[in-house]
Amino acid sequence: MLTVALPKGRIAEDTLAIFTQIFGERFVFDDRKLILETPNFKFLLVRNQDVATYVYHQAADIGVVGLDTIEEQGLDVIRLLNLQRGRCKIAIGMRKGEKLDLSKPEIKVATKMVNITKRYFAERAVAADVIKLYGSIELAPLVGLADMIVDIVETGATMKQNGLEVVEEIMESTTYLIANKNSFFEKKHEVLSIYEKINAIIKAESKQ
Amino acid sequence: MILEHEIPEGSKLYFGASAKKKREIEQVASEVLSGAGFEEIVTPLFSYHQHQSISNERELIRVNDNANYNMSLRADSTIDVVRIINKRLGRNTTHKKWFYIQPVYRFPANEQYQVGAEYIDEVRLSAVLNRAMAIFERLHVKPLLQISNIAIPRKLSKLLGMSMESFRHINIEQFLSREIPWLTRLVYLHHVDEIDEVIALVPDEIKGELQKIKELCDALQYDHAVIAPLYYAKMLYYDELYFRVIEGNEIYARGGRYHNDDVTSVGFAIYTDALIEALSR
């Protein structure tokens, strides 16, 4: 029996669709239920940012979560497989026409992803004042709260609509199948078996 | 403001039943290890040499002596035990088997109670591993024993040009995408009864290292064990045969073979706090 943590929303639906394709049975959560039990799996529906936490503490053996979230949290979990879904970028956005100047003595950056941002500027030996926000990040440069933002970009439309543009890409992110380290060694055959089955589907998709 | 009921985060408090469990674990460990010819040692809480024992010096809790030399609270017992026996007690004792029951402390206020054993100038890891498992048996717990060899990922890293980070994160996708049959078999290797087939396939430099795992398993008096040949963790002294004892998400013990001043020794540490929690459940 493997416990699988899934983030609410499209990633959960996509992952359950993969499981349906593999095992030929429907995996659907009943209305508002957070646990779905089948003979071989227990699926947990959790918040995106909590998936790696559930896996790290072994409340789930495996999980599906974006690489950006894994990098931001820095939890020691196994990155089993790139699922090639949910592709997006973590990028620096500034007001249209402005240029990224890392030689400025003080840079203010607004972001949800404090750790990725701090690491990026620290690696470039730039003293950045990182301001944590929980949403509407695009607003920060417009009202003078920050010089720039670090945010997730899928199409770039939200930034554009708010008069911002991408000036630098920090990383690319896709969803990953992750595993708890002890669960992996304890249930190696089960974990590798599901790895193989999902990997076969990902490979077949990439050939299409 | 600090309220009257508060204790520092990371510190340990045992009372009543949990304190009794702690005493029971330490009593059982003491009986098993004394029965196997190990003598007890209690080392100083303050040490001049802890920076040699710990990979991240920022974890040390530092103080100064009366001549303003740096000292720190004991953050790791192994290297201090071996150093004191070799350098300070060398003329007073020739005994090689030692155990300790004492906590370690890390910045800012982390306390960890440990039971450990060191067998100096001994190459057989089974000489201490079987004692560790005997302690668990006496405590009526049957955790999973994971046997690894840190030399395997190190050699593979050079052989295949892969970073040690790939091993630390157990990057299965990267290993399997190489489509090297023997590497795939190493990823899947789980039980000792599969090891001979894999030994026959791997390159010569890996054969010897797998053989060491096999010999350890053959000398093992414990049946709930798995092999993890690609496991890697950054450690300051265990550099070859290595084991972890795990249950759920907890680590009950770890140990291995290490080299100090050209002397090969074997040892382990049991994490008493994790065991107290498990036995109190």
What this model shows, in words?
The complex is a heterodimer of chains A (208) and B (281). By secondary structure, chain A is of the alpha/beta class. Helix content of chain A is 35%, strand content 31%. Chain A is built from eight helices and eleven strands. In chain A, α4 links the parallel β7 (107-111) and β8 (128-132). Chain B has a domain at 7-142 and 266-281: BirA Bifunctional Protein, domain 2 (2-Layer Sandwich). Chain B has ten helices and eleven strands. The two termini of chain B are 33 Å apart. The chains are: A alpha/beta (208), B alpha+beta (281).
Brief digest:
With 208 residues, chain A is an alpha/beta fold.
Structural class of chain B: alpha+beta
Q: Kindly state the mean pLDDT of chain A as a whole number?
A: 94
Query: What's the total count of β strands of chain B?
Result: 11
Q: What share of residues of chain A is helical?
A: 25-40%
User: Total helix count of chain A?
Assistant: 8
Counting DSSP H or I runs of 4 or more residues, the number of helices of chain B is 10
- Provide the low-confidence segments of chain B as ranges: none
For the biggest sheet of chain A, the summary is: 6 strands, mixed
Output the helix-strand order of chain A: EHEEHEHEEEHEHEHEEHH
Q: Count the strands of chain A?
A: 11
Helix content of chain B: 25-40%
Principal-axis shape of chain A: elongated
Q: Span from first to last CA of chain A?
A: 32 Å
| Separation, N- and C-terminal Cα atoms of chain B | 33 Å
Could you give the order of strands across the largest sheet of chain B?
1-5-6-11-10-9-7-8
**What is the assembly state of the chains in this entry?**
heterodimer
Task: Report the sheet-strand fraction of chain A.
Answer: 25-35%
Tell me the structural class of chain A. Answer: alpha/beta
Strands of the widest sheet of chain A, in order across it, are 2-3-1-4-11-5
CATH superfamily of the domain at 7-142 and 266-281 in chain B: Bira Bifunctional Protein, Domain 2
